[in-house]
Amino acid sequence: MSQPPSITLHVPEGSESDGQEPSPDNERALHTSFHQLILEQSSLIEAGLELELQERSRESPARLATPDPCAMAWPEPGQGEDHPRYSPASLQILASMPSRTIGKNLGAIISQYCNRTARLRRRSSRPPLQQLCRTARPSLRQYDLETDPATATLEEKRSQLVKELLSFPPSQRSHMLLTMPLNLAEKRNLRRQVSGHRGPLRQHAHHWAPFSPCGWSKFCVILGCRGLWYRLLFLLRAAQPWHYALKQIGGRFGSSVLSYFLFLKTLLMLNFLSFFILLVFVVVLQAVYPPASVSPPPFTGLELLTGAGYFTHSLLYYGYYSNVTLNDPCSSSPKGSVCPLAAPPLPYNLPLAYLFSVGVSFLVTCILLVYSVSRSFRESVGSSAGDLAIKVFCTWDFKVIQRRSVKLQCENICTQLKELLVERRSRSRPQSRCQCLGHCVVMLLAWLLALGSVSGCVLAVHYIWEHVHMVQQEQQVQNSGRWQQEAILLVLPLVVSLLNALMPHLFNLLAMWEKQDSPVTQVYMATIRNLILKTMVLMLLCYQWLSRSVVCSTEECWETCVGQDLYRFMVMDFIFTLLDTLFGELIWRLILEKRLKTKRRPEFDVARNVLELIYGQTLTWLGILFAPLLPAVQMLKLLLLFYIKKTSLMRNCQSPSKPWQASRMSTMFITLLCFPSFLGAAAFLSYTIWSVRPSETCGPFRGLETIYESGKRWVLVLEKSNPNITWFAWVYQHLLEDTSLLFCMSVILIAVIYFNVQVVRGRQRVICLLQEQIVNEGEDKAFLIQKLNSVWKQRRRRF
């Protein structure tokens, strides 16, 4: 009788053998644990290996090489369809590995987790191994419950696993059940058996050790607090705006369309913060203490479009706010008299509050935007080459049980797989030199046409501005009617909104002419061209406003006229957005279905719609100094846009023909909002505050050289009233008045963004290295098994 081969691997003892889990970073510990696994499994099969070899020696060699169907699927690196002929011992060890046990059979899985629970229970019940001497440390082999897998039935293994689970705390027991690779029916069966065994134990414990009154009250308080905490978590989750609607959009149309609605939600939050700051510190106090102003004209309804008339002398615009100081004892005393000596209440300077509220709102917005840009850069790290395997094997949520949620998750996973496949296919298309040269020529011509059209639009806006300016002066001289004077105000916003609505279609045609392979590149091109158009038009408008080329009546501030212009631009932009949704999506869908008899529907243009949001938000930031309630108007506009766009998307649009991931596009959108939009608006308002002279007859800064001078006067008054705070005046002069502080803040902001970009790139390199390490670990295992097989063949030849 032939003797079974004895496999002896000398494993050096070191610090790794003290009972701790080997670290993945320590290659020596990792290979040592692999050798220990081989030693344990080889000792288990040593008794039955002799009989198995005798039986298989009588069979065909082909059958000898395939004792396990799962083991046949192990290919050797570097070989095509030829499978290696491993020994039975190697295949038995390979089949006993945890990675090969999953999916083999139910009994093996239950036995594996039964062994794991037993080890965890005994490890937690004994002192740490580091505190014991080496001779007193127990071996884990004596805790192996599956010494003879052939004799243990499925029910016995299940009962053993239930007994082991009962010895764990409830939280650890639930975690063990969640991590088991079993189906939901088997997990419910195990949970039911565990709950059935826990019932009598609880009754027995309650019979012998009843609660004391103090313990019972403590138990009730803990249960009540836990229930209250769970209800609060449920309310917080339900209070998230548009939670289910966003999941529905993402599952049906993909992350590219979802990025538009997430961006809209971000803008709504930013406007709410700005509106809240201005409302608390400026608007409410001015409404409580209104100035003595002229009676407004009657409301006719045209004010909703023009922003003039009844709205001119209201809280909406700059000219309504006064330059008084509330609770000032010297303001009520006659001129030349001495102020009362009694300690007055805290004075409140409305002009200073107006200036600081605008500054604080911009500061909070800047911090949130920088945080959003950093978070978007961190989230963009996840778009790597391994996402396809993750989406296939690790995406499904087994806790989803509702039919609607299951359908939504299926659609979401299918859409994400389409996006990944389209991006991977676009990367794997090589082009020849002639094709690259032709593509560059087409792109150059497209850019020349785009820049020429942008220049023509800017010149058209300039000439229309001059013409409207002349007509307004003539109407004031002729004393025309109110309707004619307000109707001419809508001409310039109408022309600008019409250009913003028509030119993106030309840019889309140019992008189609370029024939970009990747839909992300096509969106980049369209976004950049639309951004250039809107930026040039807004720069021209800002120049005209700062040069005071606006026609106002004698009782109005020029700041109020600028605020009215910005209000009209916002309203006209909203109207054209509704018209584009009506004709570009609804009417076009009816034409395709009723007339052309096709099942195609219009696609949702993400780039154009996102740029419309950025354009509207830029108008809001430009006008927050001239119209403090403009963020409230923007909030109302965004709320209406969300529900209108969502309804039109669900009823009129189809999924993108070329799905694409929006992880990098979301980063681009928030970056465009931060730099060209917010930075440009901040530069415009900074120049207005530091260099432009305010109106002489109205507004909170009347009679001053610049708006910034109000801060200087407040510091001088504060220094005279209390000489002990001269340090505050020094801080104000050397930090706020000096431009070096602004320069340092800008450098810090750029450094933070640069640091986050470098962190993202470093994490991408680490992810690539970890993926290579995973591949190398798989090759190491295959190499070890191949060496083990060769050792077994050499031993067999000796016998």
TrEMBL record:
Which cellular component appears as one GO term in the record? plasma membrane
Q: Which GO terms describe its molecular function?
A: mechanosensitive monoatomic ion channel activity
The record's subcellular location field reads:
Membrane
Entry-linked InterPro entries? TMC (IPR038900), TMC_dom (IPR012496)
- Keyword Secreted listed? The answer is no
Q: Where is this region: Disordered?
A: 1-32, 56-86
Q: Which family does it belong to?
A: Belongs to the TMC family.
Q: What is this protein called?
A: Transmembrane channel-like protein
Natural source organism: Cyanoderma ruficeps
